[in-house]
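S.,

Sequence below, as promised.
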Amino acid sequence: MSYSLLADTVLTLHVAVVAFVVGGLLLVIAGNLLQWRWVNARWFRLAHLGAILFVIAETWLGMVCPLTTLETWLRARAGAVGYGGGFIEYWLQRVLYYEAPWWVFAVGYSLFGLLAVATWLYFPPHARTRNDAPAEK
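The prediction came back faster than expected:
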């Protein structure tokens, strides 16, 4: 497998993680309003909250996302200079990467995290037991 293809795979994974964090919060809110019980599954809510807390922590600590670091390293190994490669790389990067001072991201991620915590409190997760009946729509 080429380094370029591996870099594109990491970039795709990175976009999927972002989609999970953003889409997960939207699903929790919409799902609760539509009474979908599965959106309050403890494993889903813990994974979602953990993901956003990781993003907030790495931002406030001044760390670069490990997926960004890995992708950059793979692109360098592939001989790519910066960004400007293939179709997938071009469009996924345009969706994912923005330029702004670090504090803009720190504040934005923190506010998003507070919203995630608020949904945790307003729509608390539940632990399903063996005796629970399957959820209805």
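The chain has five helices and no strands.

Coffee later?
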